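Its record is quoted verbatim for completeness.
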Amino acid sequence: MNFEEAAEKALAFREERDWSQFHNPKDLAVSISLEAAELLEVFQWSGADLEVARKASKAKEELADVAIYCIYMADRLGVDLAEAISDKIEANDRKYPVEKSRGNSRKYNEL
């Protein structure tokens, strides 16, 4: 399944349950933030284990929740998510040219 098919499946799931009536931008933004916090929780107390491989399935589940709510938000706002991602990558490409940023974690204004 590609991303477009997954997005369509997520939207169909929501429509079958008539949940779009509850998906206003504010509540979707809250839900994205909450699910992102649950993803972060996977790494809580992991110490030096930065990968937390034993919790990969939980991270996958939480990442999917974040993505689904992002799909719902994009749909609600009329945003073409693929186009928005492409536009953002192009903007980041201008801010972080390869010759200055490769292997460097500094922010664009510090390069």
Remarks:
- The chain has two domains: 3-79, 80-111.
- The helical segments are 3-16, 25-41, 56-77, 81-95, 98-101.
- The mean pLDDT is 95.
